[in-house]
Design goal:
The chain is mainly α. It is built from 13 helices and 5 strands. β1 (13-14) and β2 form a beta hairpin. The relative contact order is 0.16. It binds zinc ion (2 copies). One zinc ion binds at residues 2, 4, 7, 9, 23, 25-26.
Length: 283
């Protein structure tokens, strides 16, 4: 049943921000009249002038992405031999991922978002699952960066790190993205891991948040920050720890995605298409 006051409507959706159950009448709509998995209160909290209409540059990138046959985001290349000494479970976690062999003899295992999501979706179940979910999320995020295992190990050496990760994933499911962000992303928050900035904690939230009838948390990093500044004049710094700023970005993406007829995660792929794809080429 719908959670809104005095409503006995049938639940068809949940607010992505606060996890409230919603009937069709209580789903927020974009200015163009498209429904979102957002309640009216969160719409009021996070709507902005820039969320009202699909930005011209995003529409241009979207048209180009559709013309190319809607390609998925490039998978992220990792070197198993770089990660295995620190994390012996890595070969098992990456079993089944495609491997690309370059002419210089180096091999790269390709992690795509679906594979990382399959592990992220288990993070709420146990501390071990949460540990693996964070590990794959960081491998996906660091890609070829040689310092990835060192940084990731530092996160995981935080006292009770696997339990904190599990609790963040549980909080996201039970209370929504905003409470999870507030407890997990900012410095000195209860569940934060040492050295884990929000450009990377939002990657965890992305992989934790594949929940039916809700929108996913999206990555907020310097690429997104620069896109917003360059194309809309909106200044939200990469690495923001401010839940309202993050919520405003998410609300805008949910609204733009609804008006483009895409999921927010595909719209994120479109936005990231702004960066030349060569960046992800492993060889
Ligand atoms: Zn809400
Ligand atoms: Zn209702």
């Amino acid at each position: 049943m719908c959670d809104e006051t005095n409503c006995s409507g049938i639940k068809i959706s949940e607010c992505s921000f606060c996890a409230k159950s919603l009937c069709s009448a209580h789903k927020a709509m974009t200015a163009a009249g498209n429904a979102m998995h957002v309640c009216h209160k969160c719409q009021l909290n996070f709507t902005t002038a820039f969320s009202q209409f699909v930005p011209r540059q995003l529409a241009v990138q979207h048209a180009s992405w559709v013309a190319q046959g809607r390609p998925p985001q490039f998978a992220s290349p990792v070197d198993i031999n770089l990660w295995s000494p620190t994390f012996p479970t890595v070969p098992a976690l990456l079993a089944g991922c495609p491997v690309i062999r370059c002419s210089n003899g180096r091999s790269w295992t390709m992690i795509d978002r679906d594979h990382a999501t399959s592990l992220g979706s288990l993070a709420h179940l146990s501390p071990n699952n949460a540990f693996d979910a964070h590990l794959i999320s960081m491998m996906w995020g660091f890609g070829k960066a040689g310092f990835g295992p060192f940084r990731t190990n530092n996160h995981l050496l935080t006292m009770n790190a696997p339990i904190s990760l599990q609790l963040a994933a549980q909080l996201l499911r039970s209370q929504g993205i905003i409470p999870a962000f507030k407890e997990f992303a900012p410095r000195h928050s209860r569940l934060r891991l040492d050295g884990l900035g929000s450009a990377f904690s939002t990657k965890d939230l992305f992989f934790f948040s594949d929940v039916p009838n809700r929108h996913r948390a999206l990555v907020f990093d310097s690429i997104v920050s620069k896109w917003l500044a360059a194309n809309l004049g909106v200044l939200i710094k990469g690495g923001t720890e401010n839940a309202t700023e993050y919520g405003r970005y998410l609300y805008a993406m949910y609204s733009w995605a609804a008006d483009l007829g895409e999921t927010p995660e595909d719209t994120e792929v479109v936005l990231f298409g702004w960066v030349p794809n060569a960046r992800w080429s492993p060889c």
